[in-house]
Specification:
Elements: H1 2-10, H2 14-28, E1 32-35, E2 48-52, E3 60-67, H3 73-77, H4 84-99, E4 109-115, H5 124-134, E5 139-144, H6 146-156, H7 165-176, H8 181-195, H9 202-226, H10 230-247, H11 256-288, H12 293-297, H13 303-330, H14 335-360, H15 373-386, H16 392-411, H17 422-426, H18 434-440, E6 443-444, H19 446-457, H20 460-472, E7 478-479, E8 481-483, H21 488-491, E9 501-503, H22 512-525, H23 539-548, H24 555-573
Parallel strand pairs: 3-4, 4-5, 6-7
Antiparallel strand pairs: 1-2, 2-3, 8-9
Helix pairs in contact: 1-6, 1-9, 2-9, 7-8, 8-10, 9-10, 9-11, 10-11, 10-23, 11-13, 11-14, 13-14, 13-15, 13-23, 15-19, 16-20, 19-20, 19-22
């Protein structure tokens, strides 16, 4: 395990990776971290500062300057402003005499050089001489290299009581099968279940969350080295959901342990965003703007494989964009977060542009083969609705979906079905068999969602075409809409059982206005959505929908509809 950890640490970047691990490690060791990394600048050489007693009863101040990878001559004393020697000088000459918090004055100080790899032998004497010359009665030096960090992580995160042998075995299996992402994810899922297998005290929950964070970062590091982050992506979604399930009870609690637990969740969310952005920007952005390019990139001669993957990509891009949209609307209004919000807004527009290009250049997205592609369509439709006033592209896409679907019914082609087994989908459809058609289209969430989106946006032509499909080919089909239930909160994040309420035989024969009134009335009557703890951070709910294949709650479109009506009324009054 130590070899795995050391290799992992040596591959970490300095910002938001190695320093993030170090913060958790110091807290786990019982130290109080009072300076954390800030984007774009250091506290005069100090990346992280902590105070506490490690081996004895003497309370010391630890000042860290963090570097990525091995420490060579250029990193130690090169021309860059980021050279370690210059940072150590700033700590000694500026930070300690000028910016040391008054409550820590007089305490012994340890200046720590932290790097994820090894110290190159060629500069070992230089570093030793520097430390010797600058050591004083109150100031000493310490090197936290990859070997020491991995040892401390093993000691404080991976102790036998925190990660037993079977836990370590699952992590190793997940790392060994990165070339088979689904198998790798399967073992990581088992690991997550074991980590959170017991209800615990806040201190133990904090350890579990930090352990999950470490394991996920190790997985991501190895995935990145192999150029295949699929397993890390799926595992990061799972980590978000499970961590929220076990940490939601601490929201609003002002205790120190509760704040640290919520910080750990924030760190997992940040990692998910980075993994998602890397996957989408490297694999999708470059291909979405060229006709059929992404379809060819899937590298399969079977249209089924291409169709399933395209809708999966569609859902991922939409969800990642919705996370960015949420963050933009919840950032504080100081100068630092304004800059971050500006960057994220530009990314948001890139997501929107990519989605529109993705749909236009891959016509297989006009033909959902599975009924649960309604989930990906709903995510995309809601993203396009809330991030821009122009919904013409959304209209054209939905119109093509219902138009092509009618053609598939006429030609006995691959019309949308309720099958989920890949082998069954390969043999779909069985032609000239009304009995088979009735079986695989007995129920549907796809058409009610398309009708809902059409009614909300006033796409009357699309609404009428769905109504026509129902009359001509799907008169036997139970059109259904899903609503959260009282048990949703306990089962949504971990998918540990059935939950929710189903509105069956949705009356699509009504006018669009009556249809919306009917289904939104149920939102008001069964108002369980507001009882979902993640409703304030609603991307968690949508992550659960995408990951566990749960229909998107109608409440999202209810809010959109109300917002549109409010804006329309406001404009009319003016």
């Amino acid at each position: 395990m130590r070899l795995i950890l050391k290799e992992y640490l040596s591959s970490l970047r300095e910002r938001n990776e190695l320093d993030a691990i170090l913060q958790d490690l110091l807290s786990q060791m019982g130290l109080d971290v009072f300076i954390r990394p800030s984007p774009g600048h250091k506290e005069f050489g100090v990346d992280i500062a902590a105070v506490g007693a490690v081996k004895d009863d003497i309370e010391r101040v630890y000042l860290f300057s963090v570097k990525a990878g091995d420490l060579d001559g250029r990193d130690w004393d090169g021309d860059s402003n980021q050279a370690l020697r210059q940072s150590l000088n700033e700590i000694k000459d500026v930070f300690i005499p000028t910016f040391m918090p008054s409550e820590h004055e007089g305490k012994p100080i340890v200046i720590c050089s932290c790097y994820g790899g090894d110290l190159k032998r060629s500069i070992s004497a230089n570093v030793s001489q520097y430390e010797k010359q600058n050591t004083s009665e109150n100031i000493s030096y310490s090197r936290w290299d990859g070997e020491k960090l991995s040892s401390l992580i093993e000691q404080h995160f991976l102790r036998e009581d925190l990660l037993p042998k079977e836990f370590r075995g699952l992590l190793r299996k997940s790392l060994a099968l990165l070339d088979e992402p689904e198998s790798s994810y399967h073992f990581f899922k088992e690991l997550v279940s074991l980590i959170f297998s017991k209800k615990a005290k806040p201190k133990d929950d904090l350890k579990s969350l930090r352990q999950l964070n470490i394991c996920l970062r190790i997985l991501y590091s190895w995935c990145r080295e192999q150029g295949n982050v699929e397993s890390a992506y799926l595992s990061s979604e799972l980590a978000i959901l499970h961590s929220w399930e076990y940490a939601k009870k601490y929201r609003g609690d002002k205790k120190k342990a509760s704040n640290l637990i919520l910080e750990s969740i924030g760190s997992i969310h940040e990692l998910y965003q980075r993994i998602s952005s890397e996957l989408i920007e490297n694999k999708v952005f470059k291909k979405a703007s060229t006709l059929y390019s992404l379809s060819f990139e899937i590298n399969s001669s079977n249209p089924l494989d291409i169709n399933l993957k395209l809708f999966d990509i569609l859902g991922r891009v939409s969800l990642s964009g919705l996370w960015s949209y949420w963050f933009i609307n919840h950032l504080y209004s100081d100068d630092e977060t304004k800059e971050q919000a500006t960057k994220m807004y530009a990314e948001l527009q890139s997501y929107r542009k990519t989605l529109i290009s993705l749909i236009a250049n891959n016509p297989l997205l006009f033909t959902p083969y599975k009924d649960d592609h309604a989930i990906d369509i709903a995510l995309t439709a809601w993203f396009l609705s809330v991030t821009g006033e122009d919904v013409n592209d959304l209209h054209n896409w939905l119109f093509n979906i219902v138009d092509y679907t009618e053609y598939l019914f006429i030609s006995d082609g691959r019309y949308p079905c309720s099958l989920n087994s890949y082998h069954e989908l390969l043999n779909h459809p069985i032609k000239d068999s009304p009995k088979y058609l009735h079986k695989v289209t007995a129920g549907s969430i796809l058409y009610p969602y398309i009708s809902l989106i059409a009614a909300v946006h006033g796409f009357d032509d699309i609404y009428d075409k769905v109504k026509s499909l129902k009359q001509k080919y799907l008169d036997h089909t139970n059109f259904q809409i899903w609503y959260p239930s009282k048990s949703t909160e306990d089962k949504l994040y971990t998918n540990k059982g059935n939950h929710g309420l189903t509105f069956s035989d949705v009356p699509i024969d009504q006018s669009p206005e009556e249809y919306l009134k009917t289904i939104f009335k149920e939102c008001e009557h069964f108002n369980f959505f507001e009882e979902i703890s993640a409703s304030y951070c609603w991307p968690i709910i949508l992550t659960a929908c995408r990951h566990h294949r749960i229909p998107v709650p109608i409440d999202f479109f209810y809010d959109l509809y109300n917002k549109q009506n409010n804006e329309s009324n406001k404009s009319g009054n003016e």
